[in-house]
Amino acid sequence: MDYFQDDIYPDTRVKWKAAVTAEEWFAGKDGTQDYISLQPEGMKPLSEAPKMVPPPKKYEYDFKAKTDEEKKEELVSAMIDRMVERDQEPLPQDAQEGVADDEWDD
Fold first, then answer.
1. Claim: this prediction has a pTM higher than 0.85
2. d(CA 37, CA 4)
């Protein structure tokens, strides 16, 4: 069904018909312009159309936004875990042979 878009086409002034005659205007009378609806007969206005129900979502996703404090805590925790992992790994210089003690004497 087609609907008339009354939000785009409001009632319009009738400019082809004078609000007051020349004699009335000279006498100081002020009139108001008539308005006409542009809505065709038998067409319902869009403002009276039934509201569209959005289709059901295909996927449900329960998104919970993290607060700044939660993000900070997660980052610090990840950094600490990374430091602990590195503490357990041997250092590269531990695998090298190095200089013998007698080579230090001059």
1. no
2. 11
| Exposure letters 51-85 (e unless 16+ CB within 10 A, then b) | eeeeeeeeeeeeeeeeeeeeeeeeeeeeeeeeeee
SS3 45: strand
Token duo for residue 56: 């059901």
CB 59 within 8 A of CB 19: no
Measured torsion, CA atoms of residues 23, 26, 32, 33, in degrees rounded to the nearest 10: 60
CB 17 within 8 A of CB 35: no
Query: What phi, psi does 5 have (nearest 5°)?
Result: -85, 85
Residue-level pLDDT, tens digit, the chain, 106 residues: 688 998 899 999 998 888 898 999 899 998 888 999 999 998 999 888 888 888 888 887 777 888 999 999 999 999 988 888 777 777 777 777 777 777 776 6
One-letter amino acid at 4 equals: F
